[in-house]
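pasting for the record
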Amino acid sequence: MRTFDIAYAVLIACALFLMPSAAPAQLRLDIESGLVGSGYNDVRIPGDTGTDFSLSEDLSTGSDAYLRARLDYTLGVRHTLSVLYAPLTLAAEGTLGGDVHFAGEDFPAGTEVEGTYTFNSYRLTYRYALRQTDGFEAGIGFTAKIRDAAVKVEGGGLSAEKTNVGFVPLLNFRLRWSATDRVDLLLEGDALAAPQGRAEDVFAGALVDLTDSVQLRAGYRIVEGGADNDEVYNFALINYASAGLVVSF
């Protein structure tokens, strides 16, 4: 078992033991949807011998609808565990302006191709509230992320795909400020950078109280990052126009 796996297991176990058993627990379901589109999406596979090309510039990638779901469990006022399911698939199409060597196949210039970028994310997070009041919240924690990614190109009778499933450790943060009695401003996300790559998933927006147990969430989300190694070079910027509901039980 890797060091990060052990560290996360110990962290979560300690958090569970430290939670005050007499404090009330709160369960929250956060459903987020909206439109997602690609900024840059640069690819070179293999990372050392493939051809540089862009799924968003050499090809055309349109906007599409998306859906994410997160379940939070807060005990007391300081300890929160959450699980996130965040699938993502973007389609691209166009005509190659030059020869492209991708994942073992050679696509000639002028080939009409379709590309598929998949980046599904499954996360387990523990966060500790450094400060928690009715008007302000500041928390920091750790996220264990499973990345299920794939880049596929097909056209001209050829098809090639590179898949990757891996574990990514991230830092988690959350800042919430009550602007009015019914509106909270929110900045939260997961992020970390290392020599082999980086990953950021950050939301900025507002929470509006609709009832005592239902809030409207709206704002902007950015997902950015990638990896640079002998097998894969891929860095992408994904933009989200986000809206959803947060229901407390």
